[in-house]
Amino acid sequence: MYLAMNRFTVPVANAAEFEELWLNRESHLQNMEGFVSFHMLKGPEDEGRVLYASHTVWQTEAHFRAWTTSEAFRASHARAGESRPLYEGTPQFEGFQSIQSIDASA
Amino acid sequence: MYLAMNRFTVPVANAAEFEELWLNRESHLQNMEGFVSFHMLKGPEDEGRVLYASHTVWQTEAHFRAWTTSEAFRASHARAGESRPLYEGTPQFEGFQSIQSIDASA
Q1: Could you give phi then psi for residue B61, rounded to 5 degrees?
Q2: pLDDT along chain A (106 residues), means of 10
Q3: Can you give the CATH number for the domain in which B92 is found?
Q4: Which of B96, B101, B105 should be substituted to probe chain A, the one whose Cβ sees the most A Cβ atoms within 10 Å?
Q5: What does the alpha-carbon distance between residue B3 and residue A53 come to, in Å, rounded to a whole number?
Q6: For residue A52, what is the nearest residue in chain B, using CA coordinates?
Q7: Which residues does residue B21 pair with via DSSP β-bridges, in sequence order?
Q8: Does any domain span residue B55?
Q9: Tally of domains within chain B
Q10: Residue range(s) defining the domain that contains residue B60
Q11: Which of A71, A72, B14, B106 could cysteine-pair with A28, CB 3.0–4.6 Å?
């Protein structure tokens, strides 16, 4: 599996609006080839800022790369600029390859 | 879902040994109540250091908390000190709550 994470540092005062924006957006992921799952995650709060992370799992990195050059990706991000003032700086992207996997016993 | 991540900054020279240590350790997670999945992830390399992250998904944060106070947890971490020289500083823990979930279409 390949995990694409984008980390957002959001001032506490903007957190509710930031969440609302994500929860109400239109997602284009669901029918992309190789897409496994998406989660919007709320992480720890530190010094008045909340760490959020978008967490998208793909079958392979190649599937993720195909998504980033697709029409659906452009459509998803066309309005991204509107939310910029809600978080500090720029989102921090991190891509991860799984090197070991353990699932719950059946 | 609740995601418990631990981030490790590993000098490139230690990466192979760090991976081997993880891949060969004994895991006690599989039979814990509320355990969903574990992945060891290899992230980006930057300035001679590789970011690794252990990525454990639980049904709820309460299940994760129960794990951290269990006998199995103590057994899993009894030898943790032996690997310390392989990464820089201390692992950085981040716990995340899912606030939105999208799965692939069936």
Answers
A1: -65, -35
A2: 96 95 87 94 96 97 95 81 78 96 83
A3: 3.30.70.100
A4: B96
A5: 11
A6: B96
A7: none
A8: yes
A9: 1
A10: 2-97
A11: A72
